[in-house]
Amino acid sequence: xxxxxxxxxxxxxLDTLQDLQESVNAALEAYGAAPHTLEEVRSYVGDGLAKxxxxxxxxxxxxxxxxxxxxxxxxxxxxxxxxHTAPYSGIVSMLQQLHAIGYRMGVxxxxxxxxxxxxxxxxxxxxxxxxxxxxxxxxxxxxxxNLFAAMEQLGATVVDTVYVGDSDVDLDTARNAGVPCxxxxxxxxxxxxxxxxxxxxxxxxxxELVSMLQSGWFDMPSFV
Length: 224
Known about the structure:
The chain is an alpha/beta fold. The chain has helices at residues 17-30, 38-44, 49-56, 66-80, 91-101, 113-124, 145-154, 168-177, 191-196, 206-214, and strands spanning 4-7, 14-15, 86-87, 104-112, 130-134, 161-165, 181-184, 202-203. A six-stranded parallel β-sheet has the order 5-4-1-6-7-8, with helices on both faces. The chain has a two-stranded antiparallel ribbon with strand order 2-3. Helix 8 (168-177) links the parallel strand 6 and strand 7. The radius of gyration is 17 Å and the shape is globular. The N and C termini lie close together (10 Å).
């Protein structure tokens, strides 16, 4: 059976949307740019803060103050990343249950590496053994580099591993790594968006995720 689970963070384990919205809006307004609604920011997230800021500006990276707005967003978010952020319903107990069963677990995110490590330690303790975010040494998702790095740290291979995420980026990342993906429906993308991107297996609750992981589905030949 698959015994290594790698998770996305934002939209999968943690609801970070309001803190992201408030951080990017504060940076935008500091440079005279228009703020965005929660639902607009929801559609911009998934590829890291640089892409979030790019999508929030009509001119994208061509905006004359794009580098400054990105830097300010990073600074503000680092100072305010736990104002409203919290695990989704059932996540903490799910991780504790899976950890007790013997699953090895890690997080791979496009959020800055220092933020990923800090948030995982704060909210999940030792249930998450490896936490990797955006860094200078490897490509971000949807490239598989950080998934492979997490597998190496956990002593795992693609045969052992499943990836859990909430977005099209996560689906592409899993495909590029050659591992199966479970898509969660409580995050930043809805069922129609995930279906359109080829999602094969979706879950609506943390309990459903545990049931799927324990079902033996991942030992079917098409996923080995």
